[in-house]
Structure formats: structure tokens, C-alpha cells
Protein 1
Amino acid sequence: MNKNISISIIIVFSIFLTGMFVYTDGYEDIKSSVVEVLCLSCLKLDPVTQLEYIFETANSNHHPDFVLNNLTSGIVFLHYSKDACSGCDIILPAIKELFSVEYGKEDMFQKKLTFEENTVHYYYINTDHTTDEKQQSFKIYDKDHVEGLPMVTIITLNYDHGTIKPYYTSIYGTFGSKYDTLQKRYDFLTDIISESIGLWEENNAGYEP
Amino acid sequence: MKFQLKRLLAQFFIFLSANLRPFGVKTGFCYPFFYCNACPSATSACPLRPLEVSVYKFIQDDNSIKWTFLLFPIAILGLIGALSGRAICGWACPIGLLQRATGKIARKFKKYPLFKKMGKHPIEQYLRYIKYINLIGLVFVTSALIGFYFTDICPIGFLTGTIPTLLLFPGKYGPSSYFWIALVIFILFLILIFLIERGWCRYFCPVGAILAPFNKISLMHITRVPEETFQKECLHCNACSNICPMGIDVVKINRDPECILCGKCIEVCPKNLIEYSRGQK
């Protein structure tokens, strides 16, 4: 192989790589989608689901406005997902069935739903296709600092030192081996939502966003 | 400083630089070697992950290919491959560093008749194609058709992601449905690298499969001195081939796709008939 050919190929790849940096979002996409989000598939592990409600946000930031405002009329259900994520593809059908909703995996979707005669504000947040506010909410509600997807957050209300505040839990991955079928995941989510609705009903009268 | 000590320092330094997340360093680069982005201290992305993401279920879900995820790692690996071929396997890869250590044990096993021909059997040259099948079949085809089956069972992910995570965060994670299969594959990986020197690089590494063809065109490579001098002076002692960790017949070396440019053959040749070259041949 002639040295000049080798150098020509190096130049081609250098230009190619520089072009990728300058004219595409490849670097940022890989950083935000691969490096900063934990790949549970690569890890071969599932976060242990701890169904614990807390008041404090994961990064000490305030709850986003869209959550605070919606809490006046019902609980908020945030369903975080991304395009290429095998766990997300497992959870998606359970949630679609739970709320009887239909949307594309890459869509931004939100709907005010009625669940057992109560209002639920449902948000499907695909972190690859969403607004900054919704993207940032992922870190606000990542209570166990897993940084992995899928993640489901349910926000309700509870009494804390004299005031009614948002009270939330986040569950991760495919909810663990205990919930290994669609029906079990469906039942598990139904129980959490019912509990959250109960809390909301007890406390909503005193809530001010 | 001894040449192989320099290589060891390079491998060690690159291993450290691949693990800077505890200092807040997170980049959008892909490693030019095999190292899992799920490692708690990983700085960058495994090059295979964006490749998998680029084609993830694109047939099943009727999605389009994510071109930036496909081309960005190819551009990085292409540039490094065009410069130095598979030198990255010999000089930078942390899994190469691990196999450098286990290779010494693999050499000791060779004293026993049962293991003597291991890695030198005639069928061995065909086994080297498995890594290309891994790259195309497991990384691309299964990702496009079914899902992330390679990452689910990847032994390097198990070594650099799963084990450190379980040690650092006890009780926070439990096994996924693929954990036990991955554990079995990881044990087989360990057996392989303890029995055959650089067994993973030789037969299975998909990143090695991407870099290997670049040995044919790379600027930097290992070559023999001009043919006339070589024929005249070679003692046919076979020391170069015997020491090669990749099991290459170095006497016939001509831009071999398996060469990791470790330089052991150069060091061992009593007549200095093998050398690093920059593009002439």
C-alpha cells in the first residue's frame, strides 16, 4: 500500500470526523443518549424497585410548573422513555393498556385521563424528543439517582409540616423479576395509582400550587 | 525505557483516562476500543452502543436509521484505524491489558500436551472469522430485527459494567432476565483468555473486527526488511512467531489483519529483520 494512499485515507476520515463535529449533533446525541443515560441492558441488571414516596426532589430543584399546576385537578403520571431502549419497549404496552391510550414511540404525548373516575394527568416523555422542561424533570424525579430508563414517576399530594406539598415516587426498569408479565406490571401500576389517588383526595383541598 | 514497559504504561494511562467519570468527566466520544459505557466510572461511550442504537428495531418499528449514531463511531474508528490499524488493541484497550496479564498464564498452559496445540490448530484461522459474524450478526442484525441481544449478554459489559456496579451499589440492583446467561458467557470468556493468549481479540471482539481491515491500509504497520535482506539473513528460528500474542506466522507477515502492533516480534528478532513502518509497503 502506497504511503500516499494511506495519507489520503487519513485525510478523508479526518474531514469526515471534523464534519461530523461541526455539522451534526453526533457528539451531543451520544453524550446525552448513551453516556449520560445508564443502559440497563448493558448492565444486565434491573434497579430494585423501592416503592417509597418522598417530598424532596432528586436534585433539589423545584417541581416543574406543569406538574404543580396539574396537581390542582388530579395526580400526575410521568412516563419516561427513549427511542432505543429494550426496557422501555417492555413497559410501554403495560402503560398503554392501563390508560387505554395510543401514540407512537417517538411522539410527545400528554392527556388528561379518567382512571377509575379520577383525573390523571398522563405525560409520555421520550427523552430523545421532548422539551427542555420535560427533559429536566427527569433529573428532578430520579429519586434513586439511577439515571436509567424506563422510569415512571407518580406525583400526588401529602401533608408536610403544616403545608400540602407534592409527594412522589419513581420506579425504574421493568419493575424487577417479581413483575415479569404484562398482567403483573399492569396490576402493580394500578395499585400505585390507586394509592396515589387516595392520598391526593385526602389532601387536595389544602393545596396551592 | 524498555519498549514493552512503554506499552504497559500507555495501556495503564489510557485505562485511567477511560475512567474519569468520578471527576465529572463525561464526553460524547466513543472509545476506540471495547469498554462499557455502563461502567460507573466510564468517561465515554462503547463504540458498539451507538452502532446498535443506530439500527435499533428499525425494521420492526419502521423507524429510520439514526445516521449520526452510525457514522460517528465509524469516523472515530476509521481515523484511528487508518493511522495505526489495530495498534489500539495492543496499546490502548483495557481488555487487551487484561489479556496481557492472562496471556502469561495461557503460555504456561501450553507446556501441557492437552493445551499445546490450542490456538495453533489448522481450524483456528477460520475461527477468527467469528468476530466478523459477531459484528454483523449480533451488533447489527439482532439490533435491527429484535433488540439489544448483544449488550444483554456481552462479557465485556459484565466485566466492566455489571461487576463494578454490584460492588459499588450493593442492594440497589438485582439481576435482569439476561443476567445468568451473561454470567455463563463471562465465565466462558475468562476460561478462553486464560487458555488462549488474546483469545477474545483473536476470535470474538467486534471492535477488533472493525479495526482489522484497516491493517491493510494503515499508515503505521509492522513489516519485514526488504525481501532480499530478509531471505539472506533470517535464521528461521521462529522466535517472532512463537512470541506473537495473536498467533500470527510473523515470517509471512504482510499487513496481517490480526497484528496488534505490540512490537514483541521486533524486539525478539536476533537479526532485527522486522520493523515498524510508516506506509512504505
Protein 2
Amino acid sequence: MSIVPNLSLAHALGAIMLALTVFAQPANAMQPEEARHLLHRTGFGVSHSQWQSIIDLDYDAAVDKLVSEATRGQTVKAPQWTDEKPLWTVRQSGWTTEQRRELRLNKRAKIAELRHWWILQMLATPTPLRERMTLFWSNHFTTQYNKIFAPMLVFNQHEMLRSHALGHFDKMLFDVLQDPAMLLYLDNDKNNLNSVNENLARELMELFTLGEGNYSEDDVKEAARCLTGWGVKRDTGEFRILNKRHDARSKTVLGHSGKYSGDDLARLLLEQPATAERIVRKLWLEFVSLEPNESVVKIWALEFSKSNYAVDALLKTIFKSPQFRSVENRGVLIKSPSELFVGLMRPALDGLNPEQIRVRVSELRPGKRLPQLFRNAGQNLFEPPSVEGWPGGLEWVDSRTVLAREHTARNLVVGLADQKRGSTNPYLISSSGKNSKGRLITHLNAVDPVSHIPTTYTQQRMLLELIRDPAVHVK
Amino acid sequence: MKKPLKHSHAGSASNTTFSRRRLLQSLAALSTLSSGLAFATPSTSARRLILVELAGGNDGLNSVIPYTQKRYYEARPVLAIKRDELVTLSDHIGLHPKLAPLLPAWKNDDMHIALGVGYPNPNRSHFRSSDIWHTASGSDRILKRGWLADAFEAQESADFSAEGVAFGSGYGPFLGSSQSLVLDDPVTFAKQARMMRPAPPQPGNTALNHVVSVRRQIARALDDLSVVIDARKKRKIKGSDLHKQLTIVSELIAAKAKVPMYKVTLKGFDTHFHQPNRHKGLMDDLGTELGALRERLIESGHWDSTLVMTYSEFGRRAAENGSRGTDHGTAAPVILMGGGVRGGFSGKQPDFPDNDDDDLAFHLDYRQIYRTVAKQWLNAPAAADKLRSFKPIELFS
């Protein structure tokens, strides 16, 4: 099936001819359309320098490069206050209304700053795949800021997830179970020897590892006992295990018995094939298509658990697979608001350092309100709608979000296009010369527009037409 | 099966509470009948449902008040509404004084109160419990679709410009519907929707088709809604959010917008502290606006074909807390209004628990009301069938 069946034959041929003449190819280099798919699927739009860095490689080498570079990756400097201690301020009983108000405003400002910082991170990163994976994990190990109201804990969790983003899933799971934000979010600070709270244990099994149908209610109860006493120090906000609140007796989880701790529980869950399968299935939905192929999922999952849950190796397998590369799977996924907005912005910010990017973004008309625009489009960072995270897939686009998406896309692109670099529209700087229009489409869109955009249009007009076309929403 | 309408335009003989104004309206309606056949029999599709979400957990006990229960006054020394202030409805139930604007509806048998509504194993999380109410699930099941999503037969829904229009906060009961809209701000909606470019019918894959069909839904609704929205551009509505939402709703209804269901939201019911004034303000807003809505719909001749229903994710604890407020509770009343309803009560006011830590027990499952509304009012079998294990209530006369 062709993605754009209504494209006339002549139009299609023209596009191919153009592609052939513009991108002079070394012998083993991949097809430009493959590069386009790979970069759009694994990053945010395509910047010219990114394109240049892989276009002469063969496909597998390009995947290896993308993935291994993403295991490193510098970051935009975090706000000053993020290294402060204690990790949170607990309201004292004797406080005045004024003091309480100040704390509230202080927290509100901090979480707003974090949202902004996260977006800058996506805009400025030299390794977009790392940010995509950070988004992925924070939508797997979800935390809603609105429940815990502790900016620093949210920040620390976020950094923890980023540090493991292409690392090892097992290590990440151990860290998650000792993460103060997670323990508070799922009420494990109330999970004690004499009054068990099952919230974390249940979501751990249902959402973070096995998935529904792979454990019993008794397993949840027993798993909760393994986690008793794991909580947060009231004064500092740090992780602590209170031995007197921990149930040290024997538990039976998934048919195994022992005096298990939280770590033991995690190990048991990691031994189950369902855990690896669940993660692989979610990655399929993120990177391949809307319909996971179960037999392939099983094969990849086995490989994943055998590799000690090496995420980078799994990603290489996925990106090199025929399923990922299939022409039929191009443009079949809907971009999240982050992918859409950041993807439309990055091409205009190519080659700038994080500070220059920060300045340019702050000079945009909606610059200060960027996080709100993400929220209006259905992705309020640090605030997924529930513990299951954003449902994603087709649900990113509905009657409310589609308008917000298109409205914001237009404002951002028009705003950035006006911020000349030298005297040139920044979207066109890297695509000057022959077929600059074709290259602009390649950089902004994962697939060609549905509507015909005449080549006689000016570049400015073409930009606007591009973001009004339904194809802007897919990756 | 269509139920006879109490104040149908044809004017049934059994009707005893026909006010003079209603009579005039009916005559006016009859005169329009002579020029067109549109309303010869009020077809089911001409009926409308307006859902009013009281977000945050409304204190049911201080809205519909069991004033004869001694424990009400004992458990709520600060918050209890005094006997001589409340609006008496029956020999054991009264309304919050600020709901007095609903009294005309009550006296005219246009108001029905379902008492002690809830569900088994109640959840006290705002998010979860409102999801439960929006998806008509039990507390042990997570459903993904709103209870009114794609409620109608395809043939019927082809006549709608939108199946549901939700104001204020998300899709709520229309979640997952392919034909519903969220209107945060109708004017912005119209402005943005007009910038949309029409797209070719079948662009290709599932994702692109989805984008195109969502856009098409917007365009279809915009055509129908734009008359009202455009008129609004010039006159900004002043007043509370609920006032703005219900003003637009009644204008859309008066303009005969082809929308069978609306949902509006009144926020701020999470009254853990300083409840008296905050709750009073909310009751004032609710009472005033629902009273005014009724007047407007009577005026335009749509009251008999409209059903209004309030709901909230939970009620609050029976006893007040130490901060002049109430914490998350369970069962609460649901208020229904409209020209077609049977005036009076359903269910039974729960007895006040002896222990301050206990909650009110529910007597009516909220899904019984849902089923009644879906089947008997909307004639929406897709929505009603999913709830067929729940016994309907006697909501219509």
C-alpha cells in the first residue's frame, strides 16, 4: 500500500528524480527515503547536520551510530536549585498562611521551570534518540507531579530515567523501586508491616513489568509485603528502608517463596518472559507500527532478557529489522505533541548552542508559554493523565488536540522563520541551492504531504502549506 | 418505545400543571407546525441531554439535606444547614438555601432527585472515581470509553453535526467517541477550525485517515455551530464559567443545532477546608444557572425535550473534618430536571452512620440512572445495552 496513493505518477517520478539528482550517493549509502524514515522515527524532525552525519553511511552503520551516540549525550544545564538539599520542603504545622503561600508559589515556579528545561533539552540535544527514550521511560514509569508536589524529587527521577534511557532495564527497575518520587506517587510510603498498601505492587506488576493476566491477586498482596517499609525520609526526602516496618517473613510470589525484599521481587519479575515482552511490545508501538507482531515480539523479548536487558542492543535490533524498515510502515504512527513541536523547531535551530537556542525560543511570541502549548495539545510534561501514562497512538489526535496542534505548529514555525540568521530564513539556511524545497519537506515531514503543493510556491508559502497538511502529524 | 412527554407540544389531556405561559408556547409551537412538519411528533432525535458535572466531589449532604436526621446536626456542628434556612422539599428532605431557584421546577414536577447514588467499593481518588462515572465501570474495572461514546445507531447519528459537545474539561462521558467535540472556548475553536485545510478523502494509512476524519468531524460541527458562535464573537458573555457554558448550550439548542448531548462543568467542589462560603458560592452558581436555563428553554419551547442531569465523582464524608470542611466520601444525590421527568424522588436517603469515620451507604447504583437515561430518554441502544444488568428507575412520568 502506498502512503500517498493520490500522488500522481508524474509527481512521484519527479520526486524520485529529484532525490536522485540531489543526493549524490556513495556506493553503499542508504536511500534518502530510508534515512528520512530512520531519523524521523528515532528523533524529532530532521536537522541538516544530522542528515549530513548519516547520509553517506550504509543503513546498519547509521543505526549503530545513532544508537551508540545516544548512550552518551550532553545535556542542557539544569536549573541551579536542582542540587540543593534537602530534596523537599515539608510544610510545618506552625506556618503562617503567608509562608504556606510562598512555598506553594515557589513549587509552582520550579515545576514550570522544569517543564521549560525539559523542552529545551529536546530542542538542543545532539542525540535526539536519547530524549525520545527519556520520554518513553517517563511514560512507562509514570509520575504525576500533581500528586507529589515535590519538584526536586520529580527532577531526580527524571534524571535517573535519562541516565538509564539506553542502558539496562533491570538496573532502571531497581532504581525506580527506590525512587522517592515513585514511592510517594504510588503510596508506598504508607506500605507497612501492619497496614499494607498495594498500590505500588499492583502497578509494578500490571504496568511496569508483567502486564495484566500474568499474575494473581494473591501475587499482588504478597508483592506488596516485599515492599513494606520502603519509603521516604520525612526530613530530607531521600529513600529509606524502615526495618521495623518491613515484613521480613516469607512471601510467595509467582510460585516462588522466600524472605523477599523489594530487590528480590524485582529480580523475580525480571525472570518472567512477560516482562521483556511487555517492554518490547511498547517499544514496537513507539517505533514500528500500531500493530505489534506477537511472534516477532517474543523473539526480540528473548534476546532482550538474554542481553541483561540492554536497551541499546534491543533498539539496534528493532531499527535494523525488516518490520521497522518496511515501506508500508512509514508514516503510520502519530507524533506526540513533543515530537510534532520539537520536530518542527529543531530544523530551524540547527547548529546553535543551547544558550543561543534558549534565547531564540524565549524571543518567540509563545516562547514563555511553550509548556502550556504542549499541555493544550494533550501532553503536559510531568503530568500524564494517569498512572498508565499518555495512551498515545491515534489518541494523540482528537477534535480538541488537532486544532491545538495545528495552531501551535503554525505559530512556532512562523515565529522561527521570522528570526533571520544573517538575512536568511533559518529553515532554509541548510537547504539552499538545488532542490531546497524538496529538502525542506524531507526535514520537516516524515512522509510527503497528502495535498499537492505546487513547486511554484515560495519557500515561505510552502512552509505554511506543509504544516496545514495532515501528513505533518505522522512519523 | 417513546414515552409520552408531560408537556409535549401536542398538549396531553392528563397534564394538570399546565401554566398559562406553557399553553401559549404550545399554541405557538402548534402554529409553527402548520407551516412545517418538523415537530409533528417530537422525535427521539430531537431530545437532548445536558450533563452537569460537579467536579471535585460535591457535598451531597449539604445540597440535598436530610434535615430530620439528628445525626446530621451532630456530625456537622459547623457545616450543617440550619433547619429554618433550608428550602423544604418534603417532610424529610430540604435543599441548600442557594438552590432556591430550583423551587419552581420542583413545584412544577420538573425535578427529580435520585437519593443515595453510588457504586460498590467506592474509590476516593478524584481521577479514578470520575473515570468510573464517565465510563460507567465498576470500581474494579478500567474502561477506556465514555458511557455515551458512539451511543446512537449509525443511521441516526448521521443526522447529528456532533454526537456530544463537552465544555470545560475533557471529553468526560464522550471519551473515545468519533463524533464528539470538546469546546473550551467556542470562539477560539471556530477561529482555529476555519484555518484547517480540507483534505482529500482517503489519504492512505490508518494514522492519516484518523487525522482526516477528526478534521472532517470538526468541519461538520463547525458548519452547524458557527451561527451561534459567530453571533457570540461580538457579545462577550459575562458571568461564571457555568453561566457561559449554559448560555452557549441554550443558544445552540434554540438555534436547533443537531447535537443531542452536552456536558458542562462546574469546578471547585473539593471543599476540604473553609467549606461554608465556598460551597455556598457553588450552590448559588448552580441554582441560579439551572433555574435560568429552565426559563430559557421554556421560552424557546425546548424544555420538554431536554433532560438535565447533575453528577459528581463522589459525595463527601458524613462528618465534617477539623478544618471547617469535608473529606472525600461516597454516596450522593443526583438531580435531574426537564419537562419530561417525573417530579419527586428515587431511591432512599441513606441513614446517617453512627460512627463519624463511616460513610453513607449507597442505595442506587449510578448505572441504573444511566441505563434509564440511555434507553428511555435518548433511545440510544448502544449505550443502554452495555448496562442492561442494571434496573431502570422510574424517572419519567
